[in-house]
């Protein structure tokens, strides 16, 4: 009989659009012979992330009812307890938090809840950074600072968008917040998996230095009240000739305040799902995979930003439906 081994848990965090899902998909796609249970939490009423994560044997557990660090901690505990009743099915748990989550309460769950604590071991908090946007954001985004302070491993991602001098500046800023974490520079989160998984890197003593009340359950934190999310949904197919120029225009016009946009779209006369994403003004779009027979061809877009004009954006979006007059 083998001795009981607590289940290793890796928390993937990082500000909006930094590359957490990209890293998660890399971990899940690599040939390593291990199986991971995945928990994804996102900010916004319409779940999109679940659809952007590659297929896994165990499925993806979604928590969309709020921020993982606030209202859904009870859900997190229940999901983990449920997973622990399926021993032998997987080798580790990966948790992707929303870009607006403070990782402290997530990490705290693995120490203050007796049951979870007995069965799991927090292996590492990995923080992904958008090298292109970090310096513009960090002073306004309290969550981004917390995510860096709590990390034991940091990926300075999107290195392809910066020169060495800019990356050095980003690294210097990160070091002011976290002098000890292991830092890697990456493009599309490409790095050997051993750099992020199974390192036993989480160090409670260091965390208690950063946050002396870490183990105190009443620990409070605040979110930026101006950051809000809304979702747009339609089951009428969209006309790409209208939608693509419109979304480019929206991204240009509102890019400064638009922290994140992502969507899964059904275009007219197109059997493939189209995924569109933006982080501020950087926009990407591509076909993903064919719509399945049993899937409703619904277009969903989620916007997260500071004081974005929902009515203007919604009006423009609805005008992109096939057969409607353009804006
Ligand atoms: N140029 C460039 N783009 C990247 C890189 N890594 C990720 N992206 C793109 O950045 C966008 C956000 O990536 P995600 O992996 O979805 O980021 P995320 O942190 O999961 O985003 P949220 O969970 O929505 O906050 C996508 O359009 C990616 O294709 C990179 O290294 N370079």
TrEMBL record:
Pfam families in alphabetical order: cobW (PF02492), CobW_C (PF07683)
Catalytic activity entry: GTP + H2O = GDP + phosphate + H(+)
Keyword Hydrolase attributed: yes
GO molecular function terms listed in the Swiss-Prot or TrEMBL record: hydrolase activity; nucleotide binding
Domain CobW C-terminal: 227-321
UniProt keyword terms in alphabetical order: Chaperone, Hydrolase, Nucleotide-binding
UniProt family annotation: Belongs to the SIMIBI class G3E GTPase family. ZNG1 subfamily.
Stored PANTHER family: COBW C-TERMINAL DOMAIN-CONTAINING PROTEIN (PTHR13748:SF59), COBW-RELATED (PTHR13748)
Entry function: Zinc chaperone that directly transfers zinc cofactor to target proteins, thereby activating them. Zinc is transferred from the CXCC motif in the GTPase domain to the zinc binding site in target proteins in a process requiring GTP hydrolysis.
Name this protein carries in UniProt: Cobalamin biosynthesis protein CobW
